[in-house]
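About this split. The held-out portion is used to measure sequence recovery: a designer receives only the structure tokens and must propose an amino acid at every position. Recovery is the fraction of positions where the proposal matches the reference. Here is one held-out target exactly as it appears in the evaluation file.
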């Protein structure tokens, strides 16, 4: 069995928009979502900026009791999933829910709850730790709680592959439908890592930029790049078997045509400097789609703004695309959203989908200083109106996890 898989619904919570429309319009205009951290006092921290959600109130989407029972990463997933289902127009009462599954990944899970409950344990003793502690923090509860809310009884799982979690979730969901194990899937990623412990951990692993200039903090592929900026949020897609989507008269945004997933087998946090894993991930996605590198119009790069990642990814694109590497439009939307870790691949897949729908490639903002080692077309500072038939999204995660999703314009 080899079925076509299409995207019929999308939901997003991002630092530059709390729905897909706001998010996409912000990407097009180059809006910067990075600002001083408001969640806690940063006086003792070397880093004082992040890309937080703006004006998000969980109780605007769910009752207070439910909001209090979910860590923020789970709140975000619930909201984005609800948006995606509503956008898809699926009538759940007349859908075989045993064939409708969920895969929503998270790189870290309920970090805020872990941190708060550890402090309670230390200050008040074990008897005061919340009985909801475990179900609030485990990463699979985003998928689990979405499944419970909507009665989705199909395949249910959670990809935990660091910054590749969202991409792997979408890719695995694509394969489940393609090979007949599901008819519909909710897939994506969610993350809420902006906490004192999360910030300290990433500072001390020297992953974050210490720049306090908002406009020059997340600057992928720029020679002066010095680390990434933490972001948060969620992105969720509704994936559906093509014939069923057509039969119910669904609005079809685009089609998932290829997926690549590989390992660097090199280092816990550093990418393989030769970029072999990332190269192979892209080539596998292109091969599955039955395309060549000449067919790819746009790459949404992982592009974290760290010195090693951007160099490695550039090398990998050159190896995969050869001379065509200089002809493909590439941008990193992390220049605007910061790095959403396990949710990054999901919101970046949405950017690829909308680039196809809107014939527009978003920019890499903040780009000033040319790096001779990163010399491809990164669509600097200003987005580009252009036809996009095939768009590719790359994700690279700690542990050497690589993921690539290939999204295409639907052809009859």
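Reference sequence for scoring:
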């Amino acid at each position: 069995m080899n079925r076509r898989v299409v995207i019929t619904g999308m939901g997003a919570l991002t630092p530059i928009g709390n729905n897909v429309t706001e998010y996409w319009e912000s990407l097009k205009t180059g809006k910067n979502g990075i600002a001083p951290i408001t969640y806690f006092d940063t006086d003792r921290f070397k880093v004082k900026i992040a890309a937080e959600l703006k004006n998000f109130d969980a109780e605007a989407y769910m009752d207070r009791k439910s909001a209090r029972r979910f860590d923020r990463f789970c709140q975000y997933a619930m909201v984005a999933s609800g948006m995606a289902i509503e956008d898809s127009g699926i009538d759940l009462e007349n859908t075989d829910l045993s064939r409708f599954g969920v895969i929503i990944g998270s790189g870290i899970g309920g970090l805020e709850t872990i941190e708060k409950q550890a402090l309670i344990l230390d200050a008040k003793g074990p008897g005061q730790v919340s009985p909801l502690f475990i179900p609030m923090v485990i990463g699979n509860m985003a998928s689990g709680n979405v499944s419970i809310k909507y009665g989705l009884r199909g395949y249910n799982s959670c990809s935990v592959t660091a910054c590749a979690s969202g991409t792997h979730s979408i890719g695995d969901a694509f394969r489940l439908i393609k090979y007949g194990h599901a008819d519909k899937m909710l897939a994506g990623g969610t993350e809420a890592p902006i906490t004192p412990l999360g910030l300290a951990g990433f500072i001390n692993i020297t992953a974050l930029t210490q720049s306090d200039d908002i406009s020059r903090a997340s600057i992928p592929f720029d020679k002066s790049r010095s680390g990434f900026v933490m972001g948060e949020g969620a992105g969720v897609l509704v994936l559906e078997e093509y014939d069923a989507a057509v039969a119910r008269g669904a609005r079809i945004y685009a089609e998932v045509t290829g997926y690549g997933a590989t390992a660097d087998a090199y280092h816990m946090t550093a990418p393989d400097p030769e970029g072999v894993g990332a190269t192979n991930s892209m080539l596998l996605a292109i091969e599955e789609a039955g395309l060549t590198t000449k067919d790819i119009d746009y790459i949404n790069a992982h592009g974290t703004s760290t010195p090693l990642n951007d160099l490695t990814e550039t090398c990998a694109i050159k190896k995969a695309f050869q001379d065509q590497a200089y002809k493909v439009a590439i941008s990193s939307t992390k220049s605007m959203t910061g790095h959403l870790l396990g949710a990054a691949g999901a919101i970046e897949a949405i950017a690829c989908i909308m680039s196809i729908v809107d014939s527009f490639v978003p920019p890499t903002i903040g780009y000033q200083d040319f790096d001779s080692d990163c010399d491809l077309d990164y669509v600097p500072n200003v987005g580009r109106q252009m036809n996009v038939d095939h768009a590719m999204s790359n994700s690279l995660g700690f542990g050497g996890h690589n993921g690539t999703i290939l999204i295409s314009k639907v052809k009859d």
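Annotator remark: The first strand starts at residue 5 and ends at 13.
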